[in-house]
Amino acid sequence: MSTPATERFPGFRIMNVLRSRAFLTVAIVAAVWVIAGLLKPGFGAYGHLRYLLELAAVIGIVAIGQTLVVIAGGIDLSVGAIVTVSAVGVPLASFAGDTSGIGAIAIVLAAATGIGFLNGLGVAFLRVHPMIMTLAMATFLQGVLILIAGGTAISAGSPVLSWLGNARPIGIPAGVVLWIFAAAAALLLMHTTPFGARVYALGANPLAAALSGINTRATTIAVYAICGFFAGLAGVLVLGMNGQGYVGIGDPYLLASIAAVVLGGTSILGGSGTYAGTIPGAVLLVTITALITVVNASPGWRSILFGSLILVLLLFSGREAARR
Amino acid sequence: MSTPSAVAQRSLYWPVQWSRNRGLFGLFVVVVGFLLLYAYLFPGFLSVSGVAKFTQSWFPLALVAMAQAILMLTGGISLAIGPLVSLGAVVAATTMTGPPGALGGIAAVALTGLGIGAVSGVIVVRLRLPAIVVTLAAAFIIGGVALLILPRPGGAIPLWFSELLAGNMPVALGVLVVIALLWKVYLATPLGLSLYAAGENPVGAYRSGVPVDAARIVAYAISGLLCTLAGLFVAAQTGSGDPVIGNAFTLNSIAAAVLGGVGFLGGRGTMRGALAGSLLLSLMISVMFFLGFSPVAQYVAQGLIIIGAVALPEIRRWRTVV
Amino acid sequence: MTSVPIVAARGVSKSFFGNRVLSDVSIALAPGRIHALLGENGAGKSTLINLLSGALVPDSGSIEVDGRSVRSLTPSEARRAGIAVVQQELGLTSDLSVAENIGLGAYPRRFGLIDYRRLARRAREVCDLVGLHEDLSTPVAGLPLGRRQLVEIAKALFREPRVLILDEPTSSLSAHEADTLTRLLRRLRDAGTAVLYISHRLNEVMRLCDHVTVLKDGALTADRSLEGVDASGLVRLMVGRDPGDLFPRWTPSDARETVVTVTGFSAGVLRDIDLEIRRGEILGIGGLVGQGQEELLLGLYGALPGKARKAAFNGVAGLPGSVMRANALGLAYVPADRKREGLHLTHTIAWNMMVPSFGRARALSFRRRADERALATALADRLDIKGDLTRQVQALSGGNQQKVALAKWMPSDPPILLLNDPTRGVDVETKREIYVLLRSFAAEGRAVVLSSSDTPELVHLCDRVAVMREGRIVSTLAHGEATEEAIVAAAMAAEPARAAA
Amino acid sequence: QANAAAKCITGDRKPPYTLGWANIYSVPTWMKQTEGTITSMVEELKKEGLVDELVITDAQGDANTQIQQIQSMIDADVDAILLIAGSSTAPARVIEAACAKGIAVINFDSLVDTDQVTAKINTDSNKWGDTAAKWLIEQLGGKGKILVLNGPAGVSVSEDRRAGANEALAANPGIEILAETNTAYNVAPAQEAVTSLLFAHPEIDGVLSLGGALSAGAILAMDKQGRPMVPITGENARQFLELWKDKGLTSWATMQPNWLGALAAYAAVKALQGEDVPAFIEVPLPIIDNSNIDEYLARAADFPADGYIYSPYDQKLFDELIAQ
Ligand SMILES: Nc1ncnc2c1ncn2[C@@H]1O[C@H](COP(=O)(O)OP(=O)(O)OP(=O)(O)O)[C@@H](O)[C@H]1O
Ligand SMILES: Nc1ncnc2c1ncn2[C@@H]1O[C@H](COP(=O)(O)OP(=O)(O)OP(=O)(O)O)[C@@H](O)[C@H]1O
Ligand SMILES: [Mg+2]
Ligand SMILES: [Mg+2]
């Protein structure tokens, strides 16, 4: 009477992969690259595509945390501020004897994780809506930035930072290498550990998750702390790439991270999605931005073109399932 | 436990309205506290022109908070609120002193909002695309159009119109009351009230015979209208148009609505909550000024106040799971 | 019956994603008749009524209204034709009041606005009919499940239907409310309404219905008058073989060690509860709908903050305080509202079965996919959940969803099981399996607490039954003492409550 | 001399005065430096018994909030309002109301389109663009392909600088504009945009950058791609000046001094005391080029790493400027 497992788990079907949002987004990115490469000589050059990946790495790393938070049913509006705090904070955290610069980076990453931890505490224990909690945190961090930013004349040069900004191990920019490792860790965490499953459970139905014995508070706090950590890491990377942090350096990454997450097919309502979609989502975003840059048009038209492109690409990948 | 039927029969509307205050009393207390504090710090607030000036500061935020709340009730959200306010301001500043005249200009502003709102609604509802990305794209498109119409700040608004809306009389407060009443009236129509069902449980609502798609599309149109009207007011208040004046409203509108207890999943929340949320955000700015806060203290206090306003009413529920 | 049916399906078929769910089914609903629609979980009953009410469109075959075939019926057309449905899965809007939910989609108007006066009057009428005494302005978010079910029924009645379709309307109603409904449906039938009644409680069907249509695996197996058919005959029609006794034989157990004691326990609406739960027994919790039964289970489970003068769980003093702690103490809880509290609807069946183990396992270990699959397959076999386990749970029929909600606790082998209406919407055969399962749990020395709206369950299955009213335990009846009449009487306080044990 | 020499001054306000600074956004380093010049000037004035308090508001970048804060300053009846406008039009009406109440209004840096103010203080943005364009055209010998880097679209400072460059560009048909960008006045977005443009345009002879951070971003982009450095215009941003020296560039920069803030505070007090303050105080644009860049860099350590190296100032300089 027992049913064979093959019937219970019909298993891998190639059509399912081809129909997944993550794959569709990859296909769209590839199509945009090919078309743009043909229309705009120079756009499709290897060096340029490599640079786009390097840019996408920053968004992609911020979006690791954002993906987790969104899947867990929340949203983090403080990632931009955390990126800035981290980029501005590294020179402040450097101390004598820390010649490699690793010490300063570790301090800053711990601080970023701590900020995320506080977000999580607010959401989990004060029951403040994530949007309110993280928005308030971003505001709070602005105040902190007034205190710390520009207060130092120390420049940010350290061997680790300049490696991050300039090195190309086996021809791949260091930032992209960092991204690959971070992405692999994130994918493993989401899809192979009980923790990842808890995050999905929390986002899909927090009440059922809690009644099933999942520690929803601890999961919430962990998710925001991870988000803070990756935003901090992105801040370090962006500091390496620019050689100089400044207030506002993280601002673009708030909307970009959210956009990458939703373009990658993760539902903003939580409970479903995967970082595998966010990766091409981030690449798509920088690609469209670069494409708009090289088009000669007035700022108004460029903005219109950017929006229209997103809308059109969304038509290919973004349809939500029909409700029954 | 059972209420005498006759009592319930005589008046259902008002008890229903009253019951919608559930969960908002904490916020109301905080808001009233801030109003009293403001009046204490600045006694001039309690004069006709004091009220007029304050409501003028609050008015556009109140409108966009409503615009965002409507969409959140449908289970959507808009990232295009800010650019739509800018577009409203730009259209007003380029038409009202031109050939269309003041009335023509107001009509153009209103039609722009209704039209753009309806189109976004159709795209979201009919093409089943996620509202957040559609409106993100719309934000770029609308912002681009505003820049095309007015590449740099300029244009003009008839002086009498500015004086009327943003002079020393609390006309804006009156307009806000009228808009709030109109919303009450809309919510008292079958289509308006269906918004809640269409947002929370579209399948169930459809099976109950609710025109779900229509209810949602109309909500987008109303939302668009409120945004461009906010833009019209900003133009009147400033006497001119600016193609990027509205940018900050996107995030502020979300903050106000969420602060007011409007939920993301649709069908949860009230307009009075969104209005109270926007009032708190606006009051906070003036109160902090009169308390003499430095910019650092402003940022820190602002963060603490909005967390506190949400967290305080929740404290009693800390340990509950269900 | 010779009259023309008001609605009828003629040879309809329906598939979801290539899965045939209904094939060539016909049914006719005639005025003045209560028509039962029976079948196992997943047989296609809900799908059939969705076709009859315009919520779904048949792939082939046709729907007839008043003898005329209609191409594609929409819900609003169905409403105009006088068809009203009480859905199986509740679809109310939390922030709207009881009255506004009842009138939804059919508001009385005045000058284009909702006529709240008329709405109040008519909503009051239908609420009184179903025995719903809540204030009409109460938001439904605050109502317990059984009350919400009454709101759904009132909502259907509000439309003054010619055809009233009820999909398991009594699944979370206790005997008293179900009786009220029975009387109401008889009155409607006598007034000429056509009623289609789906239920897995066969006594109700026997008592109430005139005619029966039976579905098995999406095909019609019987369409006949109920005259001369008894309960076991009905089961035979449904499952195609002779049924055994629904309830397993009750044998008194003698292991009477206490595993849970609470004294002076208060939480939510609960007031001063004294309760002992013993190893090896099934303790029933009964009462009218919404008297604190759910709060009691949640309170014991650590999901509601509460206070007790004295409490001990499995030898450990104090209330659990949190769900994780309760799990660690060996408690498990199966909620009644599976959609809101029990399941992750958009995730797969197999995944849902693993959720408690995700909570238990080390957060950063590797999941063992092969083990998970083997376990899920075993659980599905044990509870007779058919087919592909990688489907989303929301694609399952209501009863099968309930099985998943139960199945997910089996691997953790909890010594204390708290069950809130675990057979809600479950078909007879599966019910029998669940009963056997529960008895064997008890026999193995576990403690089972069973809150149920299905009074026969309390009577035949439980060693003791605690009856609740207004947040208190008003009576505790031993097996044999606890007859349906005694339970209802205690619940209604028709006679002085006996002292609690 | 009449006590009401300048506009908005009624003459009935007596020292010590309360000054209000309606800032648009406090957090960027640029603004922190400006705030530094204002507070140190206020300290001096306090010692002279002329000022008793400085209140600062931060509109967090939102012109609407700024209007509300100016209204609050009017309600609190400050004696003078110093204003960096968040929009060139929006604060006009509320500023007129302040003026009508006899509050001295000194508008500096970002200006408002109204003449109902006591004084406006600024460099000439049109001239900024014009001089920069002329320098670049001269460097290129009137012939060459250039990129134009602008600040954000729809903002008057950036539009004015660009408009100022128009005449010179039009007069030199040999100059071909390959592409223009609009980005925030920040390094990272400029670097990003210029990188894409470099790939699209293999041949570039010069960069007309209309902002200091933009120039730094452009140099970083060219350097990372190993492209030869070309003549580039800019501003006194420390990072740009250091890169200029570092890469051995031929460049040109000018300066919007942060001490415009200090001058505004000083002018406000002068006006309140009944002195004649001109309606427009034009602050000359200094030229930084290869001949004097070392003077600037010598003082670099006194300025934040992401800040601007402004020229020294004192009350004597201010008196001269006011007297002009
Ligand atoms: N590619 C994906 N796209 C969308 N959601 C995904 C994806 N992968 C996993 N998920 C979500 O994460 C949850 C866990 O997925 P996971 O693949 O880890 O487990 P599973 O599907 O139960 O296991 P298996 O595929 O090995 O049988 C799934 O229920 C699903 O909702
Ligand atoms: N939207 C859907 N998508 C996929 N499958 C569906 C859908 N709706 C129903 N099904 C499938 O159709 C079959 C019949 O379901 P239906 O809900 O009609 O059963 P039912 O007879 O009402 O069962 P129950 O007694 O448990 O309520 C089930 O196997 C179910 O999984
Ligand atoms: Mg899988
Ligand atoms: Mg069913």
Would you give an account of this structure?
The complex is a heterotetramer of chains A (324), B (322), C (501) and D (324). In chain A, α5 packs across α12 (216-242) and α8 packs across α12. By secondary structure, chain A is mainly α. Chain A has 15 helices and no strands. The model of chain A has no long low-confidence stretch (mean pLDDT 88). Chain A has a single domain (46-323), classed as ABC transporter involved in vitamin B12 uptake, BtuC (Orthogonal Bundle), CATH 1.10.3470. The two termini of chain B are 24 Å apart. Chain B is an all-alpha fold and 322 residues long. Chain B has helices at residues 5-10, 13-19, 25-41, 48-73, 81-95, 101-126, 131-149, 159-166, 171-187, 190-200, 202-207, 212-238, 249-259, 271-290, 295-311. Chain B has one domain (20-32, 54-321): ABC transporter involved in vitamin B12 uptake, BtuC. Chain B contains 15 helices and no strands. The longest helix of chain B is centred in the last third of the chain and has 27 residues, at 212-238. Chain C has 501 residues and is α/β, with parallel strands linked by helices. Chain C folds into two domains: 7-239, P-loop containing nucleotide triphosphate hydrolases (Rossmann fold); 255-330 and 416-422 and 445-501, Rossmann fold (3-Layer(aba) Sandwich), CATH 3.40.50.300. Chain C is built from 17 helices and 22 strands. Mean pLDDT of chain C is 88; it is low at 495-501. Chain D is an alpha/beta fold and 324 residues long. Chain D contains eleven helices and twelve strands. In chain D, α5 (156-171) links the parallel β6 (144-150) and β7 (175-182). Chain D starts with 16 loop residues before the first strand and ends with a helix. Chains in contact: A-B, A-C, A-D, B-C, B-D. Chains A and B meet through α7, α11, α13 and α15 of A and α7, α13 and α15 of B. One magnesium ion (MG) binds next to α1 of chain C.
